[in-house]
TrEMBL record:
The chain crosses the membrane at residues 118-141. Pfam families: Ac45-VOA1_TM, VAS1_LD. One of its GO terms (cellular component) is endomembrane system. It comes from the Eukaryota. This is V-type proton ATPase subunit S1-like. Residues 117-154 form the V-type proton ATPase subunit S1/VOA1 transmembrane domain.
Length: 198
């Protein structure tokens, strides 16, 4: 499959050639096509050759990808064929790339198989964040299940309480003077204090 630029200035002699292959796979019980190589020709001489990786689709489909490039930032689906080749001097990037080599009907692309993988970095990041939130939720539920109720145990003991002498005479029947060598103190007879154990 050749892409010619015609009479566009310096690109007049440039041709991009796509070498497509088709093969039958028994597991999927259908034919698949794949982009095997990409060649850049200038004035009928091959300037660069790239091996294509992971560019394939069922023969009745087309292949679509946002970026098909030789650059690492675009996942480098095009790899120079050899270290000694002039391909190292070329940077090739196709934006919104779609190709179909076989079973073309009425000049339109068939349904496209997209290159986006199920485990792209964004999807993996979402899965990791979901796992972290799930662990936090599980820990919170674990803490709620094992939360103990507050059982209160009251223990009341009768104990005398001592207060300094008060000038209020209304409490005369409830207090009894204590004999001591120094200050005069009073004892509340029925005074109790309670301890609360939790």
């Amino acid at each position: 499959l050749s892409l010619k630029f015609g009479d566009i200035g310096n690109l007049k002699g440039l041709v991009i050639r796509f070498l497509l292959t088709t093969s039958y796979y028994q597991l999927s019980v259908q034919n698949w096509f794949s982009l095997h190589k990409l060649q850049l020709l200038y004035n009928h001489s091959i300037q660069a050759t790239f091996n294509a990786t992971r560019i394939y689709a069922p023969a009745s489909y087309s292949y679509h990808c946002e970026h098909v490039s030789s650059l690492q930032r675009y996942d480098a689906l095009l790899i120079p064929s050899s270290a000694n080749d002039l391909s190292k001097l070329w940077e090739v990037t196709f934006t919104d790339f779609q190709i179909q080599g076989f079973n073309i009907q009425e000049g339109h692309f068939a349904y496209a198989k997209d290159c986006a993988s199920f485990f792209s970095p964004a999807i993996l990041m979402g899965l990791v964040m979901s796992l972290i939130l799930l662990l936090v939720l599980a820990y919170a539920l674990h803490m709620l299940i094992h939360l103990k109720s507050l059982d209160r145990h009251y223990e009341c003991k009768a104990s005398p309480a001592y207060f300094a002498q008060m000038k209020d005479n209304d409490m005369g029947d409830e207090k009894e003077p204590l004999r001591s060598s120094g200050n005069e103190s009073y004892e509340l007879r029925n005074q109790q204090f309670c301890k609360i154990y939790i």
